[in-house]
Amino acid sequence: MKKIILFIAVVCLTSPLSSQNIVEVTLQETLSTDQLSGLFLGFPVNFGIEAYKVLYETMDTDGTIDTASGLMVLPVKEVADQQFPFLAYQHGTASSRDGVPSNINAFERRLAYYFAGQGYYTTAADYLGLGESRRVIHPYIHAASEASAGIDLVKAAKTFTEQNNLPNSGQLFLTGYSQGGHASMAMHQILDETPIPGLETTAGSHMSGIYNVSGELAKGSIAAVEYQFPSYIVWILVGYQTVYGNLYNDLSEVFQAPYIEDIQGFIDGTISRGRLNDLLKETLVINHDASIPRFMFTESFIMDLENSGSDSPVQIAMRDNDLFNWVPKSPMRMMYCTADDQVPFTNATFTDSVMNAAGAENVLAVDVNTTADHGGCVIPATFASIIFFDEFVQRPLILSTQNIDPKLQFSLSPNPANDYIYLNFNNLQTKSTALEIRLINMNGQTIKAISTNNLENYRLPLNDISSGLYLMQVQTEKGFWTEKIMIK
Predict the structure, then answer these.
(1) Which domains does the chain have, with CATH numbers?
(2) Could you tell me how far CA 464 lies from the centroid of its own chain?
């Protein structure tokens, strides 16, 4: 497969493909299942992967064509006719232009590796203004451009796999973390109405995202509380200025004098987003003894943000990027953690309430870990998303014939459970097989393990288990079977 793929990449340089123009495809690395499992601290994956950097054409916010970059990760097939669904992962806030999935040294690309290792053709767009895009300023938390960059990369990947005789299942799953949660929901909204030809928009799981830009984000930006990421709101405002063009005529209309020089350096591209954040915090602490972003802004701008019902340019721009006011047609989850220190969990719960009140049939906000902060929420949210997608994917979550044992298939009741749960085995010939029962949390940790050979409606006590989403796994020397369980 590798030689064919590299040949197609060269052809694309001189002969644009009809469905989505690909500029260049470069193989970056190949990893086996053992290498991937080691990368993910021993948590099992089912397929090796091949990772590619993709340059492709997409439209900029001014209507011109830009060459954007992104990551495409393909699972290595075990049999010739094996089909995989597509999954679009949208990345979180980048500290620099190069801190994006297509950069082989970027840490967050590992999430794309994980999804591909589970058996998905996975894409991860760098977005406009990041990676290889010619744009100087990335339009941060701008729904339309996040969505278009992600959708066009999926189209490019679909074209690429079809040119290389790699069949797909016709399904597309959408997910992303932090900024990527906003970006993947923006994709979801568009693709529910206008799907990619040949791909069903199957389900979306958006993780720790900002969906209430004009409410939660606007209020939080000017709240008189300490916050360690003042560069986020600066990036949003200067990015919106490049899109809408009317938020301000001069930086001094929005920002106080001590902060303007560093913000201008960020706009010019001489200061990275991560460095800007450090400089803003330092200046805030010097002038106000704490990193309270409200002090960066002029009084007139603060009044503008406080007046949420106004039709000022900044209010219009923020409302234009809200994502709570639509009704998903395909199933959707919003994974969050209550203790998130960067993105208030109320973004998810508020959006849940609005969508369900408007008639959504399968939308739910899910607290995957009540104590995890923003960084700690990544793993449980990712595992919960995989489990959610498994309800709809048209292939087993795990296909490896070395591990799965269909004879061990069991059902759980009640589910959700409180004090106990019964394991009911459906296909086991004998009820005296020696096996191990494991209860695994969404961080991949085994929190209960019991050896038994009495399987007749086995009753497992849960009175010492915290509430949340878990995996129940039954294993013998020949293989294992896994089901998910919700404990109240």
Answers:
(1) 2-212+323-389 (3.40.50.1820), 223-315 (1.10.260), 407-487 (2.60.40.1930)
(2) 32
